[in-house]
Amino acid sequence: MRLIEGFHVSKNFGGLKALQNVDFTVEQGEIVGLIGANGAGKTTLFNVASGSYPPSSGTIRFKGENITGLKPYQICQRGLARTFQIVKPFLSMTVLRNVMIGKLFGKDRLRHREVAEIEAHRILDLVGLSSKAKIPARELTLADRKRLEVARSLATNPDLLLLDEVLAGLNPTETVEAMTLIREIRQGLGVTILMVEHVMKAVVGVCNRIIVLHYGQKIAEGMPQEIAEDKAVIEAYLGEKVEL
User: Fold this and answer.
1) Class of the domain covering 1-79+158-244
2) pTM above threshold 0.70
């Protein structure tokens, strides 16, 4: 089943064409990578899909429904959540309360704080932050803030999770842990994932399929092996063939 699909999606900022007639699909249960150089349009596509920006033209459909032009909270409540490359937790609030907000105002919109707290603890355990539930978010390391960013998104109970460079700034050990978490989210929770990432070994290690953007246009799409050997992708982004 196609969970999300975009048809001829374009986004202009004045004379800048950030996206140009991009078609894309993500099937339920997939982990799809979205790659390209800085300025290729990856985060812009996330912003359009999640409602932060309306497309200049084109259509986004999620679970068969046209969501083009809906507000971010309306799209979130339909089951599409995202993380942000620059994490922005509520620094003065505890880690637990940061996650509870997703349960209270996301797709579930739980009415009872006690239930939201139980669910938030379950998510913190999944992402490895249960021992830090009661500390303010400002005291977390970068790696833990990224885990919290994922936890807050998961708390909205998404069917599709857009991950925007969750591995950026992590050391090799933290990167491996984050890759394991991404797999657990898909396998354990059944959440479909579309992820923007520059760490190619991580992309080919967890993704079923990869979409490549270059100056706002889709130049390739396929299995990791196909993308790693694609001459246009190597020339535009990779620089050399990636050994899988």
Assistant:
1) alpha beta
2) yes
